[in-house]
Amino acid sequence: MNQTNTKMYNGIAPKLEDNVFIEGTAVLYGDITLKEDVSIWPMVAARGDVNTIFIGARSNIQDGSVLHVTRKSASNPNGNPLIIGEDVTVGHKAMLHGCTIGDRVLVGMGAIVMDGAVVGNDYIVGAGSLVPPHKVLEDGYLYVGNPVKKVRPLKTSEMEFLTVSADNYVRLKNEYLEQL
């Protein structure tokens, strides 16, 4: 597959594992790693220019999302890379900036997760929510609001949906790849 929408920055190009789909209007720059079965949908902008971006297997980044990182500095020697775990669904127009997202997470449409925030495993971050800088969320909960507040533990059906959502996007991605 021709990945003309992956761009080199300072001599570093995105690294793509097997069965990755990047829609033609998405653009990825620099030090980005996409593990197996990742899908990047229309109008996503991902800049691994001043730090690294890592996206785990079977995760999907939906339309219009922005992925960026924090530069290394004297006050923050490591900066803040963007780390996204496995089986993560990032909803339309979400913004993830120099944060860590664990496994089996749904980041709702239009949500913003800021520098140094840690969203562990098995979460739903509600649509339009703001996770402030350096906030650490407790595993297994629904968080909503601006700034986010822990609302309640996830129901069993919601926990199961987290992997179902990721699986649905792997299937959709495969359908798109078959049509290329």
UniProtKB/TrEMBL annotation:
Matches recorded under InterPro entries: Hexapep, LbH_gamma_CA-like, Transf_Hexapept/Carb_Anhydrase, Trimer_LpxA-like_sf
Output the superkingdom of the source species: Bacteria
Species for this entry: Psychrosphaera aquimarina
Query: SUPFAM superfamilies, per this entry?
Result: Trimeric LpxA-like enzymes (SSF51161)
Q: Name one Pfam family in it.
A: Hexapep_2
The record's section on PANTHER family has:
DYNACTIN SUBUNIT P25, PROTEIN YRDA
Q: Which residues form a coiled coil?
A: none
Identify this protein by name: Gamma carbonic anhydrase family protein
Classification from the root reads: Bacteria, Pseudomonadati, Pseudomonadota, Gammaproteobacteria, Alteromonadales
Query: Which CDD domains does its entry note?
Result: LbH_gamma_CA_like
